[in-house]
Design goal:
- By secondary structure, the chain is of the alpha+beta class.
- The protein has a single domain, classed as Endonuclease/exonuclease/phosphatase (Deoxyribonuclease I, Chain A), CATH 3.60.10.10.
- It has five helices and twelve strands.
- Strands 3-4-2-1-12-11 form a six-stranded mixed beta sheet, with no helix packed on it. It has a six-stranded mixed beta sheet with strand order 5-6-7-8-10-9, with helices on one face.
- It starts with a helix and ends with a strand.
Length: about 280
Amino acid sequence: MRRAARALLAAFALAVCTLAPAVAGRALEVATYNLRLDTPADGPNAWPHRRDAVKALIGYHGFDLVATQEGLPGQIDDLAAMAGFRWVGVGRDDGVRGGEHAAIFYRHARLRLLAHGDFWLSETPDRPSKGWDGRCCNRLATWARFADRASGRRFVAVSVHFDHEGEVARRESARLVLRRAAALAGSAPLLVLGDFNAGPGSEPVALMTAALRDARAISATPPYGPEGTFNGFHPERPATERIDHVFVSRHWRVLRWGVLTDSIDGRAPSDHYPLAVRLAFD
């Protein structure tokens, strides 16, 4: 019996030793998701008709971090009610709650918030402002520094929403984001993710990939889903415009990359598909 007990204890100890690194290195589930602002003009696709679908999608896929774009204060409040999540961000119009957010939602049980802030994509990034040839509206980025509770590793995530009209604004936004993000992260792992309103081969994406890596290009498994991320509330049509991206520093391994085409009764929860990646620290 003693020999059997010792063997059982030895097997248990081996199992614990074997599992510990896997737990410590558990992958992070990360997504970027343009929520589409809340406007009655969307009729049957207006936010009240799809709010629960967005929350269910985030919960079902088990995201640890979600960078969002276009969320108005009421939408942010709705998502803030999701169990287990906290968030950071400000409104782009006044730096408080006014206007659209590029808010970052994170699962508190997995990630510990260390610091956060915001800057505008303009020549005056420290105050609400339009940038360069952007005519429509203020654009901003929200950043957060986290400690991963599973591994102890620290990293910085930046959620962005580039201008949809100004070519100069998109180019200069990429340069500004890269400068600010590099200063914030230092030697720590970095994620820059969001709606860049620019596709592969564009100047802004070329600038981003000169400094960081496109998660799609280095995914360990083949990219999943359609090429595009914008659906215009027409999930029945092919999505070809890939304007949402995740860019990562050299500190990450991309285990998988996918565009999630979830729909309910033929309706997409947003006019963008969420872009989801599974990441591990290198």
